[in-house]
Specification:
- The structure holds 2 protein chains of 2 kinds.
- Chain A is mainly beta.
- In chain A, strands 2, 5, 6, 10, 11 and 12 form a 6-stranded mixed sheet that branches. A 4-stranded antiparallel sheet of chain A has the order 3-9-8-7, with no helix packed on it. In chain A, strands 1-4 form a two-stranded antiparallel ribbon.
- Chain B is mostly beta strands.
- Chain B is built from no helices and 11 strands.
- In chain B, strands 2, 4, 5, 6, 9, 10 and 11 form a 7-stranded mixed sheet that branches.
- In chain B, strand 7 and strand 8 form a beta hairpin.
- The chains are: A mainly beta, B mainly beta.
- Chains A and B meet through strand 5, strand 6, strand 10 and strand 11 of A and strand 5, strand 9 and strand 10 of B.
Chain lengths: 112, 116
């Protein structure tokens, strides 16, 4: 069965620091999708990015960047120059047949 | 923008009560999902539906049932609420299924249910 591991339960940084959230996955599928979601204190999960297994190109969106490496089964998320508004729980997810499998999440606290 | 709404943000019920959690999406999505979120356990899938009147069990369906009579609405039912069902319940919808395109799920704001 698919599995997603987010080994970092909680991370605390000071504003303007760079921070990387790790995601390691296990799958036997050759075609799959990986996702990142953000859950701010308000509670609603917000979709950030989707990557398919055939596209290993790194992606950058403003201060956010994602590094997908099939060789290490990792899909890490970096926030550059973190801000207080980045404080949230971040979830990595992997497609499995009809559904998504989520990691347990990493709680990021950015202190002013 | 996809809009997923849930009937209540907070709900308090008593043990043994029948509880209905309602979810509505306005983007004509085929697929809808119910999760519960608990500290340290992440999101766990309860049930999902890939078409009207169709349903599939997720990872933790025990104690729950679902209903999807219309495409836009997916209800989660706790037949006889118990204290261990106190949790945050999240509804989501997607256009495509997880294995294909358009598979990103869009979530509602969640319902925090307390069973006393």
């Amino acid at each position: 069965a698919q599995k997603v591991t987010q080994a970092q339960t909680e991370i605390s940084v000071v504003e303007k620091e760079d921070v990387t959230l790790d995601c390691v996955y296990e799958t036997r599928d050759t075609t799959y999708y990986l996702f990142w979601y953000k859950q701010p204190p308000s509670g609603e999960l917000v979709f950030l990015i989707r990557r398919n297994s055939f596209d290993e190109q790194n992606e950058i969106s403003g201060r956010y960047s994602w590094n997908f490496q099939k060789s290490t089964s990792s899909f890490n998320f970096t926030i550059t120059a973190s801000q207080v508004v980045d404080s949230a729980v971040y979830f990595c997810a992997l497609s499995e047949a009809l559904k998504l499998v989520f990691g347990k999440g990493t709680k990021l606290t950015v202190n002013p | 923008d996809v809009k997923v709404t849930q009937s209540s943000r907070y709900l308090v019920k008593r043990t043994g009560e029948k509880v209905f959690l309602e979810c509505v999406q306005d983007m004509d999505h085929e697929n809808m999902f119910w999760y519960r979120q608990d500290p340290g356990l992440g999101l766990r899938l309860i049930y999902f539906s890939y078409d009207v009147k169709m349903k599939e069990k997720g990872d933790i369906p025990e104690g729950y049932s679902v209903s999807r009579e219309k495409k836009e609405r997916f209800s989660l039912i706790l037949e006889s609420a118990s204290t261990n069902q106190t949790s945050m319940y999240l509804c989501a919808s997607s256009l495509g299924l997880a294995g294909g395109p358009y598979n990103e799920q869009f979530f509602g704001p969640g319902t925090r249910l307390t069973v006393l």
